[in-house]
Amino acid sequence: MLRFCSTATLLAVLMLGTVAGCASGGAPAAATVADDAAIGAGVKAALAADERLRGSEIEVDTHEGIVRLSGFVSSAEDVATAAAVARTVKGVQSVRNDLRLK
């Protein structure tokens, strides 16, 4: 009887470990999503505060600290400026600059 209980307990522990391992590989953690939202908001605020970029149509998407800039700006200088401004925001890991000229 003792052997059966030990085997059943071991089996239960192994099954729980497998289930817990599966749970960690799915959707992004809530903290990551919240961090991305905060980073995105910070980038948008920084872009809006820059006088050269105020009239620009810049979209900001953030995923795991990687910021993607898309939309339209007036000059090649504005493309570079937007990327530089985005990089100054805390939490930005890298910037993917997909901005286009009007």
Can you summarize this structure?
By secondary structure, this protein is of the alpha+beta class. The protein has helices at 2-23, 30-49, 76-87, and strands at 57-63, 66-73, 94-101. The chain has one domain (28-101): Histidine-containing Protein, Chain: A, CATH 3.30.1340.30.
Report the C-alpha radius of gyration, rounded: 23 Å
CATH class value: Alpha Beta
Topology-level CATH name: Histidine-containing Protein, Chain: A
The averaged pLDDT comes out at 83
Any guess at the CATH architecture?
Answer: 2-Layer Sandwich
The tally of strands reads 3
N/C terminus separation: 78 Å
Q: Summarize the helix and strand pattern as letters.
A: HHEEHE
Q: In which range does the helix fraction lie?
A: 40-55%
**Structure classification:** alpha+beta
Count of DSSP helices? 3
Q: What kind of sheet is the major sheet?
A: 3 strands, mixed
> Strand order across the biggest sheet?
1-2-3
Number of domains: 1
- Shape estimate: elongated
Approximate strand percentage: 15-25%
pLDDT < 50 stretches: 1-5
Written overview of the protein:
Helix content is 53%, strand content 23%. It contains 3 helices and 3 strands; from the N terminus they run ααββαβ. Strand 2, helix 3 and strand 3 (94-101) form a beta-alpha-beta unit. Helix 2 (30-49) packs across helix 3. The radius of gyration is 23 Å and the shape is elongated.
